[in-house]
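User: Here's a chain of 217 residues. Predict its fold as tokens.
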Amino acid sequence: MRAIIFANGQLPEPGAGPVIVASGDLVIAADGGSHACRAWGLVPHAVVGDLDSLSTAEVAALAAAGAEIVSYPARKDFTDLDLALQYARDRGADEILVHGALGARWDQTLANMLLAVAPHLAGTRIGLVDGPQTLWPLRAGETLTLRGQPGDTVSLLPLAGDAVGVTTDGLDYPLRGETLAFGTTRGVSNVLVAEEATISLDQGALICVHIRQGALP
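Assistant: Prediction complete.
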């Protein structure tokens, strides 16, 4: 099952580009992400968080429209997005696309990027969508398949130390079991040469940034 989460960050204005939600997707708003849902004409299946970005009337309206309200205290150990990700995972989502997780605040942006590879969310593929860009995590022992158009940009950024045993197929600059050293830029601005590319990793962790020329995922 795929989940679509709306965080309380920056999103394109309605009409600027599609946020694609399929009929079987689980739609979740992380607190103030409910405003983005409303702007895009969507009623979330659930609203998760401490609800400090919503008025009492807005919460009541969401509940009346059929949204499950999952409320937490303001003093908590997890961000609203983290709680929304855990909610989606606990309900069986094996892929989650998050809109509005990047760009509004650098502390939140960096925390959200690291959430994509958090140990407590292992086993769930999390993509952070920002317009034509999607950030995908890749953990040790995994293979990531990207689908797009020839000419799309793909950057591979090591996290938590060196990324060892990186192998790619379908990219202009191939890697064959090589190491991308932490803090270097060798993996930046590779390019899709086919409609599909694969990236696998033996040790470490990567953030794979796919910048599309075409439609959003």
